[in-house]
Design goal:
Number of strands: 21
Strand content: 25-35%
Distance between the termini: 79 Å
Number of helices: 11
Strand order of the largest sheet: 6-7-8-4-9-10
Shape: globular
Oligomer: single chain
Helix content: 10-25%
Length: 440
């Protein structure tokens, strides 16, 4: 592979340029550009990366001695398969896909962490990878020493690292803990420190891979505010995530990967819907292969078209305040006649713990007969007692038979909301309560 990095003018991508592409387009070697007139910060052409996966390994020295000529069967995993794309300077670009789709591998190829098997990569400017934050941290050293050493490892001089030390500590909000050894830090404190160091690097391009899954809600919002500031200053941001709400909220464009290949590039909302369709198709294929509800086989009976968090007046929300009413809107389209469909909504926190769930059959009662071609909108309003943090929305539509739910469509993490709270006492939810204390 020819990896070419430049700080001068943008490399000539060549070929035809289109704002939206499919796998067929990339197979012909077309790099997809962000918008006309803006030079490319990252140009990827026909990039490929594979891994060799042995099926059988000699696990002990004895096995190797007894079977020295045993033939190993090796499978090849095409993690990134002939990907071509251009990302413009100053663009906030999202990369989405299910687990194993190749998005993190692609990001590591761009960062230079992985050598690639083929293709070309042109980078204009300096990279800052927010991929494995804190790599190189020494748990036996203090947070102060680790911050300075890691800043130097990321490209700052010792003088620059010392000059920016106060800014690092202030952003991480760890003033009281900088003399502690890192091994005494919680995972959240570790992420705070690593992120605060990384943003001090003078980079033109930021590569971000789900680095905010650990921090609390306030820190996540602080990081997103920092990303917005960096974007306003002209930085290019490449963002890998499973959070479709974040993609729609922040990204200028998004790209969907599946089995290492591009299957969609375009407007974030369009790509987010395509992502949920691909995920549901995977569920359907699993059911058809291994068995499951008959309603999941063949053509869909009903499909979730949209789900989002809203205020009481119908405004779409990405953030909410604990104690204030919060609403969820679910829209479902029916392709066939159905009797008494059941809708479910669930909220899961960042640790994937279900904090709240609603079943329409229990909360509303039977819906009755629904004819093909009908759209149904379910609205849920609740007093927001959720604890501080990020919550993903899980939705489904199906029918109940013999006491069991048989789904027509299931969508995970179709939307998310960041809940802010003050005086949070801990736990999954902060329930309304009163406390009385008496001496007896």
């Amino acid at each position: 592979m020819a990896r070419k990095c430049s700080r001068g003018s943008s490399p000539d991508a060549g070929g035809s340029v289109s704002p939206v592409t499919t796998t067929a387009d990339t197979a012909r070697g077309q790099a997809v550009s962000a918008s006309a007139g803006r030079p490319a910060a990252i140009s990827v052409r026909n990039l490929s990366k594979s891994f060799r996966l042995p099926r059988e390994n000699a696990r002990t020295l004895k096995e190797k001695a007894l079977h020295p000529r045993r033939t190993r069967i090796v499978d090849t995993l095409h993690a990134v398969d002939d990907v071509s794309v251009e990302i413009a300077e100053g663009e906030f670009f999202g990369i989405v896909g299910s687990n194993g789709s190749g998005k993190s591998t692609l990001l590591k190829c761009i960062a230079g962490i992985y050598e690639t098997d083929g293709g070309e990569l042109h980078i204009k400017g300096r990279l800052a990878p927010f991929i494995e934050l804190g790599v190189g941290f020494n748990p036996e050293l203090t947070a102060t020493d680790n911050a300075i050493i890691n800043a130097i490892m990321l490209g700052l001089t010792r003088k620059e690292a010392l000059e920016r030390f106060d800014d690092i500590v202030a952003f991480a909000e760890l003033e009281e803990f900088m003399n502690l050894k890192l091994k005494n830090f919680s995972s959240g404190m570790h992420v705070r420190l690593a992120f605060a160091v990384a943003i001090q690097v003078d980079a033109d391009i930021l590569l971000i891979d789900e680095v905010l899954a650990v921090g609390d809600a306030a820190f996540q919002q602080k990081c997103f505010d920092e990303f917005a500031r960096l974007k306003r200053s002209g930085k290019t941001i490449v963002f890998v995530t499973h959070d479709m709400s974040a993609v729609e909220r922040f990204c200028d464009r998004a790209m969907l990967l599946d089995h290492g290949r591009i299957i969609d590039i375009g407007a974030p909302a369009t790509v987010a819907r395509h992502y949920t369709d691909v995920n549901f198709r995977a569920i359907r294929e699993h059911v058809e292969q291994f068995g499951g509800p008959e309603t999941m086989r063949g053509a869909p009976v009903a499909q979730v078209r949209d789900a989002r968090f809203e205020s009481e007046d119908g405004t779409t929300l990405h953030e909410a305040v604990h104690g204030e009413p919060l609403c969820v809107r679910l829209e479902v389209h029916f392709h066939a006649d159905v009797d008494d469909p059941v809708f479910t909504l669930g909220l899961r926190n960042a640790q994937r713990v279900t904090a709240f769930g609603v079943n329409s059959a229990l909360s509303h009662g039977p819906i009755g007969h629904v004819t093909a071609g009908t759209n149904i909108v379910m609205r849920l309003r609740f007093e927001n007692s959720l604890a501080e943090g990020s919550y993903g929305l899980v939705t489904s539509v199906g029918h109940v038979e013999d006491g069991e739910m048989h789904p027509y469509d299931v969508r995970e993490d179709i939307a998310s909301v960041l809940v802010h709270a003050t005086g949070w006492g801990g736990g999954v939810a902060d329930l309304p309560h009163t406390v009385t204390i008496s001496r007896e």
